[in-house]
Specification:
The protein contains nine helices and ten strands. It has two domains: 3-103, Helix Hairpins (Orthogonal Bundle); 126-273, Mannitol-specific EII, Chain A. 42% of the residues lie in helices and 15% in strands. Helix 5 (145-158) crosses helix 6.
Length: 278
């Protein structure tokens, strides 16, 4: 990978982490993140710094992967010659359509199987657009953060929402190393961006005894694990804010924790999120 591209990926990751922290109502990490973002930005050459600033005025995503010959930012098919040039990474290339900077992922994660819904299938609404009964786990076996992430990554891959449980778990654990996704009230939102070939997907797992997810003293009991295609990065922030808002309420958390079956958990999740996730 071209060194400038690697630098830009790190910068964008920190920018997205900052947006996640703000969406989840966690202000304490923002100052540290702002300092790291400024350091990475100032290390760029002036021309590249200006290019990134221009792109950021339009969208938080200024650098995106090439997935199956397509720009993950705008969804347009790229010329084969450009795809090959991005793969070789001798210099920095941009999408001719959306002008975002392009990179070729070293080992991209993607959906294991793409399913096309039948025209006769009922229209999905609310949380149903992002999750499924099969992704509800009312009792996690894990006793620590990494075990919980691996357990939920395995579930997502078994159900066809990613292709490699080991890499998926490793990516989520690496994300946790930047800033924990644990928030107040025993909630955590581990996730992996750049899982292409499908939509944003959410799995829900409950830990009955609680897991030490972050550095705080509060144990995490409700874990939302999400896989996020590049194009859905902005919407993910809205979903994160919506879920955080719903489950700040103690009654909502108790209602989830009271469910002991996947079916009950799925019904309760749908009911509780209906007002905020239309």
């Amino acid at each position: 990978m071209h060194p400038v591209v690697n630098h830009l990926i790190q910068l964008q990751e920190l920018t997205m982490v900052r947006a996640e922290q703000k969406a989840a109502g966690r202000e304490e990490a923002l100052e540290t993140l702002d300092s790291s973002i400024l350091t990475l930005t100032e290390a760029l050459a002036e021309e590249m710094r200006q290019a990134v600033a221009q792109l950021q005025k339009r969208d938080a995503l200024f650098i995106v992967p090439v997935a199956n010959g397509v720009c993950a930012g705008c969804g347009m098919q790229l010329p084969t010659s450009l795809v090959q040039a991005v793969r070789l990474a001798h210099q920095v290339y941009r999408c001719p359509i959306c002008t975002r900077i392009l990179y070729h992922p070293v080992a991209g994660l993607h959906r294991a199987a793409a399913t096309i819904p039948s025209r006769l299938a009922p229209r999905k609404i609310g949380i149903q657009r992002f999750s499924d009964l099969s992704l509800m786990c009312p009792r996690l076996d894990a006793t620590d953060r990494d075990e919980a992430i691996r357990e939920m990554a395995q579930l997502l891959c078994e159900k066809g929402f990613a292709n490699d449980p080991t890499r998926l778990a490793e990516a989520a654990i690496q994300r946790e190393a930047i800033v924990s996704t644990a928030v107040e009230h025993g909630l955590a939102f581990p996730h992996v961006r750049g899982v292409e070939g499908g939509g944003l997907t959410l799995a829900l797992g409950l830990s009955r005894k609680g897991i030490r997810f972050g550095s705080g003293r509060t144990l995490t009991r409700i874990i939302f694990f999400m896989t996020i295609p590049t194009a859905a990065s902005a919407f993910y922030l809205k979903l994160l804010a919506g879920l955080t808002s719903v489950f700040q309420d103690a009654e909502a958390r108790r209602a989830l924790m009271a469910e002991t079956t996947a079916e009950g958990l799925w019904k309760t999740l749908n009911r509780l999120t209906r007002p905020t996730i239309p």
